[in-house]
Amino acid sequence: MTVNIVDQSTRMRLHGYWRSSAAYRVRIAVRLKGLTFEEHFHALPKAEHRQETFLALNPQGLVPALETAQGVITQSTAIIEYLDEIFPEPRLLPADAHARAVVRGMAGIVCADIHPLNNLRVLNYLRAELGAEEPRVNQWVAHWISEGFQGLEALARRHSSAQRFCFGDHATLADVCLVPQMFNARRFKCALDAFPTLVAIDAHCRSLEAFRLAAPDLQPDAVPQ
Predict the structure, then answer these.
(1) Is residue 188 within 8 Å of 1, Cβ to Cβ?
(2) Which pLDDT tens digit goes with each residue over 50-104?
(3) Residue 222 domain-assigned?
(4) Do 195 and 138 share a structural domain?
(5) N or C, where is the chain less crowded by C-beta within 10 Å?
(6) Which of 23, 4, 2 has its CA nearest to residue 222?
(7) Smallest Cα–Cα separation from 119: which of 64, 169, 79?
(8) Are residues 193 and 110 in the same domain?
(9) Packed helices 21-32 and 173-187: angle between N→C axes, nearest 10 degrees
(10) For residue range 4-25, what is the model confidence (pLDDT) as tens digits?
(11) DSSP output for 107-153
(12) pTM (2 decimals)?
């Protein structure tokens, strides 16, 4: 059932950018839960996320950020876990403590080990401050994605059900994090032959309506490439 929380006391506003993989994660979670609410967009290449009005909301100046009646929540996994607590169906984190920890660990490979080394701030620093040309930047991106995916591939083989989802037989936080990272991997033309399980899971997830609607190219602020 779709819940329109814009009209409720739990009014929320999501700040993001179409190509931000962190914002992409939150969009997937929102759509998996059938939620709809206001979205505000900040063009990162134009530094709109560094404007005073946004910094007043999120002093770190990053997307995504979620405005709630109680205040602003930052960081994609914190936002997703918050939504999972107040809108628990469908559950994105398993009820069992061990399974929940495994899923968080799989998501952490993306959110803690891969993405922080490859986000826009880091790549721009490599280009502007260290003089790295695009082939070297792409090599950097591919290295850290490949290193992270090696472990995630092994865990997905261990915990996946028929290569449909990273853990078990329904979408979890691990899938919500995997799909945007696969988008980044393809964007930077990273070789994925060594990760057939992740490729299969990504393909299955992207065939689902919630994942499809969250795709970067379908967002209102998307820029044709």
Answers:
(1) no
(2) 999 999 999 999 999 999 999 999 999 999 999 999 999 999 999 999 999 999 9
(3) no
(4) yes
(5) N
(6) 23
(7) 64
(8) yes
(9) 140
(10) 444 444 679 999 999 999 999 9
(11) HHIIIIIIHHHHSHHHHHHHHHTT---HHHHHHHHHHHHHHHHHHHH
(12) 0.93
